[in-house]
Design goal:
alpha/beta, Chitobiase, domain 2, 2 domains, eight-stranded parallel β-barrel, seven-stranded mixed beta sheet, 15 helices, 17 strands, binds acetamide
């Protein structure tokens, strides 16, 4: 008799799932959670729903309000947000802070029953990441800006989830083409859906200086006034930058500013003649060559300049890292490069920050806590680890979002090869460089250089659908990932891309489900 009941339950469950009912495992979640379990049924979001948060925790309340405001435009529900005072019964979503070492800083546990949802984490940051999962379990039309017809069902079940790597980032080059505060905020919103937690801003290069430095005002007055192709360029005031940092922090995204040195520096050399060895200002540059400029490494004023820039930038950057560039300094003698990077490291340390730099910085001495961003050269990554550093994985052949998908796609370059959606996804950071292991790696970053990228539509075309794949590589354990499974899930994200009006590249490798 017991067996027959069990069969009956199994049949009901199977029937429900086969009928195409949305379940946790069929929703196409990206990044794929560590553990998922389906249950029959669904929680239905409605006007009666109340969001509770525990411990009168003000930061948690802010995260709860973020969720309320996220779902408001499409659902039309003005959901109440209240501190939890007693056991909740029906129509409730509870965000609670717990202590569970397994979950770490960003992990969460999500339990969804027909009447109640509980999202638990060690930190409000973990709750924020879990909210992105709830978001992806809701119908994609929840992303729309105007009121849509329900029902707003969230499938029942349980998820336990936490990231493989602490650093999961994207880089935007605002030097080759400038993008303003609103564009950067929009990008922050889009990448947060996939649990990205770091935004690296490439703020200076040959073509443009994009951050106000009050003690060196001509950097932006002169160095900020053009870009690739000769357009008008632009720059962030320090107030603009602080607003980006604040907005990102609300989404638990850390901003890492980059000042690229000693090469990639023509915009500064054009702004101040004294930064040149011959005391003559360079012309502004609007082409796309690399490797031709260098700071004058043996002049005192160079280090006064670097000190002022790092001091001002550190004061408005709450994150622990300053990115000092260090790539492609072909116009700097090797011994000068080593000398320069060592001195700059001391300056960064003086202002209480740690150094992040492109993999070439490993040629210099590096301090404990330094991170080398692997983009090109295996031997540099190995050297960095040998010297006590860590590695941020951003291999050009896998993660560079400015590489064309294939010969026919219109935007981007291909000096690092063509990076189609499968190539971007189907690799493991822990096994891709001989001699570099998971313990040496802080995480994964996807850089978008903007030589050919002029509009936000262009950004979207290069970022989507590759970035969600990188986000999953950084979050989901390697043994839980496969291309065949991923390509079905990314196909389902298309309805979300569409609802968000994202100009994504419809790769023919994917059977898109808009
Ligand atoms: C780089 O692509 N030059 C870091």
């Amino acid at each position: 008799m017991r067996l027959r009941i069990l069969f009956l339950i199994a049949a009901i469950l199977t029937f429900g799932f086969v009928k195409g009912q949305n379940t946790i495992t069929s929703a196409g979640l990206i990044p794929k959670p560590v553990l998922m379990e389906n249950n029959l049924g669904a929680f239905e979001l409605s006007n009666k729903t109340t969001i509770y948060y525990t411990d009168n925790n003000e930061e948690l309340k802010k995260v709860a309000l973020y969720f309320k405001n996220l779902i408001k435009p499409a659902t039309g529900f003005d959901i109440a947000v209240k501190p939890l005072s007693k056991e909740t019964t029906r129509h409730s979503i509870t965000f609670e802070i717990i202590e569970n070492p397994e979950l770490g800083t960003e992990g969460y546990k999500l339990k969804i029953y027909p009447q109640v949802i509980t999202l638990s984490a060690n930190t409000p940051e973990g709750i924020f990441r879990g909210i992105q999962t709830i978001r992806q379990l809701l119908p994609a039309k929840v992303e729309k800006k105007t009121v849509q017809k329900g029902p707003w069902k969230i499938p029942d079940g349980e998820i336990t989830d936490f990231p493989s790597y602490r650093y999961r980032g994207m880089m935007l080059d605002v030097s080759r083409h400038f993008f303003g505060v609103e564009d950067v905020k929009h990008l922050i919103d889009l990448i947060s859906i996939y649990k990205i937690n770091t935004l690296h801003l490439h703020l200076s290069d040959d073509q443009g200086w994009r951050i106000e430095i009050k003690s060196w005002p001509k950097l932006t007055e002169i160095g900020g006034k053009t870009q690739v192709g000769g357009g008008k360029g632009g720059f962030f005031t320090q107030e603009d930058y602080k607003e980006i940092v604040r907005y990102a922090a609300e989404r638990y995204i850390t901003v890492i500013p980059e000042i690229d040195m000693p090469g990639h520096i023509n915009a500064a050399l054009a702004s101040y003649p004294e930064l040149n060895c011959d005391n003559k200002a360079k012309e502004l540059y609007t082409g796309t060559d690399v490797g031709f400029s260098t700071l004058c490494v043996h002049k005192d004023v160079t280090y006064k300049f670097v000190d002022d820039v790092i001091r001002e930038l550190s004061a408005i950057t709450p994150g622990e890292y300053i990115h000092i560039g260090g790539d492609e300094s072909h116009a700097t003698k090797k011994e000068d490069y080593i000398y320069f990077i060592s001195k700059v490291q001391d300056i960064v340390a003086k202002y209480g920050k740690k150094v992040l730099g492109w993999d070439e910085i490993a040629l210099s001495e590096i301090k404990p806590g330094t991170v080398a961003e692997y983009w090109a050269k295996d031997s540099n990554a190995v050297l960095a680890v040998k010297k006590g550093g860590k590695i941020l994985m951003a291999p050009g052949s896998r993660t560079y979002l400015d590489m064309q998908y294939n010969k026919k796609t219109p935007l981007g370059l291909h000096w690092s090869g063509y990076v189609n959606v499968k190539k971007a996804y189907d690799w493991d950071p822990a096994t891709s460089v001989k001699g570099i292991h998971k313990k040496d790696i802080t995480g994964v970053e996807s850089p978008l250089w903007t030589e050919t990228i002029k509009t936000f539509d262009d950004i979207e075309y290069m970022v989507f659908p590759r970035l969600p794949g990188h986000a999953e590589i950084g979050w989901t354990p390697a043994k839980e990932r496969s291309w065949d499974d991923y390509k079905k899930r990314i196909a389902k994200q298309a309805s979300r891309f569409k609802a968000l009006d994202i100009n994504y590249y419809k790769s023919p490798l994917i059977d898109w489900k808009e």
